[in-house]
């Protein structure tokens, strides 16, 4: 076994520190400002100083591990500074993690070559030896980097789901430490070194897993907050539309009350005139006026919405009803009994469910001549029943229920397959489909 002098070790750490930072910058492919360059220079110096401190105070983890951990975090923090785009931040995060994984792999390859070439020597090695070893490592770095750019891995990374990439990196880490363990058993001469590598990389793996889990839960929380915010915004928009419609109907009622009194007075005057030929005509005109101002299709919007106490369900129903009516669909809505706020499934899922089904109903109804939708909500003995009916052209039920099929042309939405995904989450959620004399009927039981 050979030994490396302190001066050679310090030179090695300096080369590794500079190399790691430069390699990350190459992979990230983002121009750095003057301030960021200075920050990177300061980070390199601090990383190098931390190596001394970790070595001097005999830190639980090796100096190399400390340097690598800090370097990875510092590069990510500096490169994402002044980046407002979430997509760009996500891009930087993926490249930093990938660069970190590739860098460790190439360093390991260099170490393995080093073991194989110098395994029979027992001399004390100096700076020339260190430079030779790092030259070998840089050859691996150059080769992998050339492949990275040749096959345009950078563009392909943008298409990979972050969650899956983190899983891949975690599997890679576990494989990495397994390989090191197997090598230590195969070659007893490298046992002490591979044990040290095991300790270092195990700590890194634990850190990466902790970061990955933290990122997953934070991302999930942020997405949920964004979804809640979007729902609240939509709810406020729908509520404003609802209240505006109420005010409009109230004004129309006040106007009708005034006109109604004048109409009654005129009608009484005509009745006093015996054998008046104007009476039937006037009565017919009066009926038409009443129909125009109190048509069921107008005033139904004021009824039954208030019985829905779940604000998210109420919001999506109002929104879907208004959208359908604005597109010329005759919508009949009923909810004669109180529907409580708690309905047995999460609000987000009921919003998605109703949104998908009512979107499908609207698009299918628009393709028919009748253009009708019936929506009914009925709550009884802690059970909610929702029935959605829409006129439809003749369809094959096996086609409708087949995964991925939708009645929409050039459909870009979720489709019935997503309804099935939601249904699988709940044992208390039943959904049935049926065709009935030109109507497509969906029944939801909760």
UniProtKB/TrEMBL annotation:
One annotated GO molecular function: identical protein binding
Transmembrane segments: 6-26, 38-54, 66-83, 95-115, 127-149, 169-186, 201-219
The protein's name in its UniProt record: GHKL domain-containing protein
Pfam families the UniProt entry points to: HATPase_c_5
Gene3D superfamilies, per database record: Histidine kinase-like ATPase, C-terminal domain
Lineage: Bacteria, Bacillati, Bacillota, Bacilli, Lactobacillales
Coiled-coil regions, chain positions: 229-266
PANTHER family, per the entry: TWO-COMPONENT SENSOR HISTIDINE KINASE
């Amino acid at each position: 076994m050979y030994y490396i002098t302190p001066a050679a070790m310090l030179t090695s750490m300096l080369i590794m520190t500079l190399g790691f930072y430069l390699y990350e910058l190459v992979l990230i492919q983002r121009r750095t400002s003057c301030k960021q360059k200075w920050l990177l220079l300061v980070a390199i110096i601090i990383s190098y100083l931390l190596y001394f401190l970790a070595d001097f105070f005999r830190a639980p983890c090796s100096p190399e591990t400390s340097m690598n951990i800090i370097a990875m975090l510092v590069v990510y923090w500096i490169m994402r500074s002044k980046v407002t785009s979430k997509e760009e931040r996500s891009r930087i995060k993926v490249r930093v993690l990938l660069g970190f994984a590739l860098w460790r792999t190439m360093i390991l390859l260099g170490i393995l070559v080093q073991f194989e070439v110098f395994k029979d020597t027992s001399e004390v090695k100096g700076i020339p030896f260190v430079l030779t070893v790092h030259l070998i490592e840089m050859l691996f770095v150059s080769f992998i980097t050339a492949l990275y750019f040749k096959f345009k891995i950078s563009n392909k990374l943008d298409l990979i789901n972050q969650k899956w990439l983190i899983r891949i990196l975690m599997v890679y880490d576990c494989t990495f430490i397994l390989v090191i363990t197997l090598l230590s058993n195969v070659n007893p001469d490298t046992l002490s070194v591979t044990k040290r590598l095991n300790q270092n990389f195990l700590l890194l793996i634990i850190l990466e897993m902790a970061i990955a889990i933290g990122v997953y839960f934070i991302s999930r929380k942020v997405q949920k907050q964004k979804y809640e915010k979007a729902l609240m915004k939509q709810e406020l928009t729908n509520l404003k539309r609802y209240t505006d419609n109420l005010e409009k109907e109230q004004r129309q009622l006040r106007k009708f009350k005034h006109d109604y009194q004048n109409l009654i007075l005129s009608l009484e005057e005509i009745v006093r005139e015996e054998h008046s030929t104007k009476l039937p005509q006037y009565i017919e005109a009066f009926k038409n006026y009443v129909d125009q101002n109190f048509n069921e299709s107008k005033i139904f919007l004021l009824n039954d919405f208030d019985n829905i106490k779940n604000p998210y369900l109420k919001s999506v129903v109002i929104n879907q009803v208004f959208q359908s009516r604005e597109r010329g669909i005759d919508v009949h809505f009923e909810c004669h009994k109180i529907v409580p706020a708690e309905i047995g499934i999460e609000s987000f899922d009921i919003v998605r469910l109703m949104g998908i089904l009512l979107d499908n109903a609207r698009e299918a109804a628009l393709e028919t001549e009748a253009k009708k939708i019936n929506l009914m909500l009925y709550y009884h003995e802690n059970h909610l029943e929702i029935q959605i009916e829409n006129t439809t052209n003749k369809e094959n039920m096996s086609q409708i229920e087949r995964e991925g099929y939708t009645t929409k042309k050039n459909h870009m939405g979720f489709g019935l397959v997503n309804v099935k995904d939601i249904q699988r989450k709940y044992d208390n959620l039943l959904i049935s489909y049926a065709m009935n004399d030109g109507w497509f009927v969906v029944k939801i039981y909760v």
